[in-house]
Amino acid sequence: MTMQVSPTSPAAAAPRWLDADEQRAWRAWLYSSQLLMDRLDRELTHSTGISHAYYEILVALSETPGRMMRMSELADRCLSSRSRLSHAVSRLEERGWVRRQVCEEDGRGQLAVLTDDGFAALEAAAPVHVESVRAHLFDQLTTEQVEQMRVLGETLLRHLNEA
Amino acid sequence: MTMQVSPTSPAAAAPRWLDADEQRAWRAWLYSSQLLMDRLDRELTHSTGISHAYYEILVALSETPGRMMRMSELADRCLSSRSRLSHAVSRLEERGWVRRQVCEEDGRGQLAVLTDDGFAALEAAAPVHVESVRAHLFDQLTTEQVEQMRVLGETLLRHLNEA
DNA sequence: GTAGCGTAGTTGAAGGCTGAACTATTCCGC
DNA sequence: GCGGAATAGTTCAGCCTTCAACTACGCTAC
């Protein structure tokens, strides 16, 4: 693509197109992460009836003292918007896995609390999920690659969490 | 978590839980890929009105001779289900960016064809997208890390595309 | 104490995705 | 050629996500 440009605004300046190697790396990252997430989500959903999004909510709650957490903290932890989390918690409430409870210290706040049934559902799902993650991720990589993946991921996270 | 298990079925056998390092690597991968995709999608959507999913469809069509492709081939290329692609193409048709055309060789088939308007929309969006990918991915990594990412992604892809 | 502003969370409408059912066409074996 | 299986694509219902209102509470200052 040839473009006639003025070098004023960042994206209007001559685009820094990807070269062939960069294209390959980008496609490999894009496809592999999409396919992997898809696979993990499907395996979990089909064998336990819990989507990965719901699973993350249950995990977050289970790791907290009292198995409860403020809605907005939970949303952050699950990389979810508040609206999305609110809907999701409503649906988990219908399943009897989570209940809402008003927050003592802050009248505006709500606590999401993991029920015993919810914890049991999580306990049942966890072995299935960890086996998927092993099979499709860790079992495919060398120890060095796992380390590279961690460093790479943490580098990107630092950047993405800035301002 | 302690579990009483019979070593018969794969997931019923003692789960191969992740150790602390593996947890870190897994979380880093999970969060960074979610946040990165999210960011790229949002930047593209907000500045061009084209979601990343639509963008991928336009790119796939634009790279093909005649700027047309069979629906199912396009679905595979975009890691999309047929149903999803069918809906997406309908919506792109409404925007006048793609049109459907019956396939000569196979009466069951449909071709999705990129229109001139669709190509123009893609040309306008491409610089924005490449700049996002640079800013949030390539600019954050060393040359070695980009290479590692490629190898890692291609390794996972080989596994995920098996059977 | 109350006005004004910010924060916490929910709701509703609109659009997108999924899986299953459906239509239409082609392929294969006889 | 004809019947049955396979393939291509669409459609529908149900669920999920998003974005923009909206309610309710808390904080600060006058």
Task: Provide a compact summary of the structure.
The structure is a homodimer of 163-residue chains. By secondary structure, chain A is mostly helical.
SSE blueprint and pairings:
Two copies of one chain form a homodimer.
Chain A: H1 20-48, H2 52-62, E1 68-70, H3 71-77, H4 82-94, E2 98-102, E3 110-114, H5 116-136, H6 143-161
Antiparallel strand pairs in A: 1-3, 2-3
Helix pairs in contact in A: 1-5, 2-5, 3-4
Chain A binds a DNA duplex (30 and 30 nucleotides) through residues 51, 53, 70-72, 81-88, 90-91, 103, 106-110.
Domain HTH marR-type (chains A, B): 22-158
Organism (chains A, B): Blastococcus jejuensis
Pfam family, one (chains A, B): MarR_2
Written overview of the protein:
Chains A, B: Pfam families: MarR_2. Chains A, B: This is MarR family transcriptional regulator. 2 copies of one chain form a homodimer. By secondary structure, the first copy, chain A, is mostly helical. Chain A has a domain of 83 residues: Arc Repressor Mutant, subunit A. Chain A is built from 6 helices and 3 strands, in the order H-H-E-H-H-E-E-H-H. Chain A has a 3-stranded antiparallel beta sheet with strand order 1-3-2. The mean pLDDT of chain A is 93. Chain A binds a DNA duplex (30 and 30 nucleotides) through helix 4.
